[in-house]
């Protein structure tokens, strides 16, 4: 498996954006000089993926608990108390319980993963996440045989989330994955961006990132993870199953009923900057086998 999207980072590795970008440039240059073994192949950015500015990543967001405008999360998510934080992990696991964020981070390697985030609304940006593989946490709690799906739930705090007074969705926001999708090494729980703590608007302190699926699968500020046999309730699909499916794999050939998914607007790329959308958002080499034999126009 290609692992060029992996960069080891220590938990204390706080890098300002300018220094960070500089270092990346220098390392890329070194690799070109045949010093690749020093930088390590892991330090090369995945081909063609240039991260968006921190500004874009933290000011153009979807986090409907704080309002449906793209600028609402940056404006209002600071009201969310993110420390202390704990996650209830239950259902078909050997060690169910309420895990403090410290217990969750203990023993995990925080890596950098530069992924493209493709929203179902047909825009995308490239985000240098910091986080760890979800499977490391699932292994820690011990998934029991018979579990087939993983369900996730976002915090619901009416006092801190001004958007939940409107029933835009049936709160709390919920998402889910098939167990094999959850165990896939591309699937991470993010704790940061650009080597800094995850800003609240991006889903602090812990959010899912599943890069081959539309952005709404990447649920923010997780407080509950449940292993179960049945396909879980998922907010967007269950709000409107004609428009949003459980799988929600990025697919340029399957249109949304109200718009094409063949191309996407590139955030930060200038006024009319667009790119063709890639099957599985460009991660097909890694994930297509998860869906072999499935009709992806039916299982959208
Ligand atoms: N709890 C929660 N998680 C959420 C959302 C949301 O509204 N609430 N929006 C989703 C959508 S539609 C997208 S595109 C991504 C956006 O992530 P970002 O703001 O970090 O770029 O978060 C996803 N996770
Ligand atoms: Mo989205």
UniProtKB/TrEMBL annotation:
- Give any single GO term for biological process: protein repair
Does the record bear Hydrolase in its keywords? no
Enzyme Commission number: 1.8.5.-
Binding sites annotated in the UniProt record for Mo-molybdopterin: 61, 64-65, 119, 154, 202, 207, 218-220
Q: Is Signal one of the keywords UniProt gives this record? A: yes
Alphabetically, the GO molecular function entries are: metal ion binding; molybdopterin cofactor binding; oxidoreductase activity, acting on a sulfur group of donors, quinone or similar compound as acceptor
Q: How is the cofactor bound?
A: Binds 1 Mo-molybdopterin (Mo-MPT) cofactor per subunit.
Superkingdom of this protein's organism: Bacteria
Keywords in UniProt for this one?
Metal-binding, Molybdenum, Oxidoreductase, Signal
Q: Which PANTHER family match?
A: PROTEIN-METHIONINE-SULFOXIDE REDUCTASE, PROTEIN-METHIONINE-SULFOXIDE REDUCTASE CATALYTIC SUBUNIT MSRP
Which protein are we looking at? Protein-methionine-sulfoxide reductase catalytic subunit MsrP
Question: Which source organism does the UniProt entry give?
Answer: Pseudooceanicola marinus
């Amino acid at each position: 498996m290609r692992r060029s999207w992996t960069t080891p980072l220590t938990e204390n590795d706080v890098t300002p954006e300018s220094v960070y970008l500089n270092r990346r440039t220098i390392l890329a240059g070194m690799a070109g000089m045949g010093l690749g073994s020093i930088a390590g192949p892991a330090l090369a950015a995945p081909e063609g993926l240039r991260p968006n500015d921190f500004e874009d990543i933290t000011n153009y967001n979807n986090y409907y608990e704080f309002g449906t405008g793209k600028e609402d999360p940056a404006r209002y998510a600071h009201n969310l108390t993110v420390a202390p934080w704990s996650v209830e992990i239950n259902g078909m696991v050997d060690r169910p319980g309420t895990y403090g964020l410290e217990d969750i981070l203990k023993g995990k390697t925080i890596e950098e993963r530069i992924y493209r985030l493709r929203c179902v609304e047909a825009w995308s940006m490239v985000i240098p996440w910091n986080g760890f593989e979800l499977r490391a946490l699932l292994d820690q709690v011990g998934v029991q045989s018979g579990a087939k799906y993983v369900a996730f739930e976002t915090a619901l705090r009416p006092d801190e989330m001004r958007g939940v007074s409107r029933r835009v969705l049936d709160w709390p926001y919920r998402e889910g994955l098939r167990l094999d999708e959850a165990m896939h090494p591309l699937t991470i729980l993010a704790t940061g961006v650009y080597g800094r703590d995850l800003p609240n608007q991006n889903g602090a302190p812990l959010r899912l990132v599943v890069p081959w699926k539309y952005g709404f699968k990447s649920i923010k500020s997780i407080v509950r993870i449940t292993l179960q046999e049945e396909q879980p309730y998922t907010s967007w699909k269950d709000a409107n199953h004609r428009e949003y499916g459980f799988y929600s794999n990025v697919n340029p050939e399957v249109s949304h009923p109200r718009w094409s998914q063949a191309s996407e607007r590139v955030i930060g790329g200038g006024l009319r900057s667009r790119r063709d959308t890639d099957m599985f958002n460009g991660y097909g080499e890694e994930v297509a086998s998860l869906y072999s034999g499935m009709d992806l126009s039916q299982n959208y």
